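Need residues for this backbone.
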């Protein structure tokens, strides 16, 4: 099981309560009271909306499909979060993901609150026409609670720019004459989407690693050498060493991480393995990532599935079992596929010193504690995979102004925003006893708590 976001929030509040720098205005009883308020505000969503979408299928049957929109907190701005179409969606998961959005936005100074949507269905069991109806129904059922200044959905697992285009179209029909470009993000570019949105998460994931192993390390080498901290030792141990990398997942996020790594001139690295839902491809001297991306583009997103397909595509790689990627002898492991990939059964076999979470919650709570104690540097999801929501914010801004940035401008703003967060959370990670995940949560909770206090909400 993935680490419960609510539990980490509570642990962060405990740590902050005993820190004299945290809200020094609050002492004794008022401090205790404020802490109780914070615990209840942050551990419960403001609203949980549930509906059963009534959808006519092409075979004449009419079904009711459960759908959620959870609005966790909007103290920092309008609610914001993706809509997931997946058979495993459930209320608890949507609440957990909405909470994570509140914290992610707080951590990265994105002026949005946290929300999440979910529909319990497997998209591949529906026709395109049925999916279009489901999207329109979702907007109809939740039309009163979403909108450019209320709650702004985006794509998530099982949804893409196609669904966002449909949903924005429906929103526009329901609210004629009102502004609509900011009602959904992750739209196609012709429909008001942003350049650089599709690659934003993958780029951000790679930035989180590159910044630590290049910019931060170079600027702080002397200080890190003196710190005596176990993570600092592991970081320095990789200084100027040629780094090998393995990337789990070769979709939107994983393929962009692989391309960024392949073309990175700041760090001496090579991608020795990538995997997808079928296979791991391995080459000790490094894989040709642009050629693999060309291949997946014309093969339904899949990597070549066996030696015959690898040879036919003119690629140089050895096929290995899908799960083998996780335990390869590699320096860096990027997890960009699914949740719960490193768990009790395989955690002892992880060789990588650095693990970067591109997917949400790819390491179970138990494995996270185990790897942390072993000194592994884990760059957590809340920090690494925020590129999508950051560029969603830029898309929302561009829609409001009806002025659009170039791809170069978007990438520059994305990098600057993430760099700002790295500068806040990397130094304490290398000098205090908390993990990077804990540091990120503490920083996010501190921001939310301070704003709640200043707005007089801690009664
Ligand atoms: P995607 O569907 O484009 O790609 C997923 C990839 O993982 C595919 O290559 C698939 O074959 C592979 N995969 C599936 N099961 C696997 C397995 N057992 N082993 C190895 N590979 C497997 O999805 P994506 O958009 O790249 O998202 C990846 C993860 O990142 C998801 O967990 C998603 O929630 C998370 N995420 C995505 C974004 C975004 O902007 N796309 C933002 C934040 C978080």
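Answer:
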């Amino acid at each position: 099981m993935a680490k419960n976001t609510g539990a980490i929030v509570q642990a962060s509040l405990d740590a902050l309560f005993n820190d004299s720098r945290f809200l020094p205005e609050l002492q004794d009883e008022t401090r205790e009271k404020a802490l109780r308020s914070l615990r209840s505000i942050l551990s419960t969503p403001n609203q949980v909306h549930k509906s059963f979408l009534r959808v006519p299928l092409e075979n004449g049957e009419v079904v009711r499909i459960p759908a959620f929109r959870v609005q966790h907190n909007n103290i920092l701005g309008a609610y914001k979060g993706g809509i997931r179409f997946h058979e495993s969606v459930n209320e608890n998961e949507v609440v957990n993901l909405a909470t994570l959005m509140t914290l992610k936005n707080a951590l990265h100074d994105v002026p949005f609150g946290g929300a999440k949507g979910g529909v319990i269905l497997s998209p591949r069991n529906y026709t395109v026409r049925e999916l279009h109806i489901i999207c329109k129904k979702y907007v109809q059922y939740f039309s009163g609670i979403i909108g450019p200044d209320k709650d702004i959905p985006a794509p998530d697992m099982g949804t893409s720019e196609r669904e966002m285009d449909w949903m924005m179209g429906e929103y526009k029909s329901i609210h004629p004459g009102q502004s609509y470009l900011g009602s959904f993000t992750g739209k196609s570019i012709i429909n008001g989407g942003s350049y650089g949105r599709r690659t934003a998460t993958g780029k951000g994931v790679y930035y989180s690693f590159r910044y630590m192993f290049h910019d931060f390390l170079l600027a702080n080498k002397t200080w890190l050498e003196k710190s005596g901290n176990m993570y600092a030792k592991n970081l320095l141990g990789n200084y100027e060493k040629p780094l090998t990398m393995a990337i789990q997942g070769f979709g939107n996020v994983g393929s962009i991480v692989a391309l960024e790594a392949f073309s990175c001139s700041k760090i001496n690295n090579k991608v020795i393995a990538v995997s997808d839902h079928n296979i791991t491809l391995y080459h000790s001297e490094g894989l040709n990532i642009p050629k693999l991306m060309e291949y997946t583009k014309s093969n339904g997103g899949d990597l070549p599935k066996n030696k015959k397909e690898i040879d036919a595509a003119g690629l140089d790689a050895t096929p290995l079992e899908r799960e083998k990627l996780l335990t390869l002898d590699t320096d860096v492991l990027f997890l960009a596929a699914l949740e719960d990939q490193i768990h009790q059964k395989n955690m002892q076999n992880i060789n990588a010193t650095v693990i970067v979470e591109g997917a949400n919650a790819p390491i179970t709570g138990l494995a996270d504690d185990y790897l942390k104690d072993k000194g592994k540097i884990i760059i957590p999801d809340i920090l690494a995979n925020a590129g999508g929501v950051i560029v969603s914010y830029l898309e929302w801004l561009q829609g409001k102004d009806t002025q659009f940035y170039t791809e170069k401008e978007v990438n520059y703003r994305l990098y600057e925003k993430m760099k700002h967060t790295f500068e806040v959370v990397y130094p304490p990670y290398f000098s205090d006893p908390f993990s990077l995940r804990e540091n990120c949560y503490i920083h996010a909770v501190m921001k939310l708590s301070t704003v709640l206090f200043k707005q007089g909400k801690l009664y």
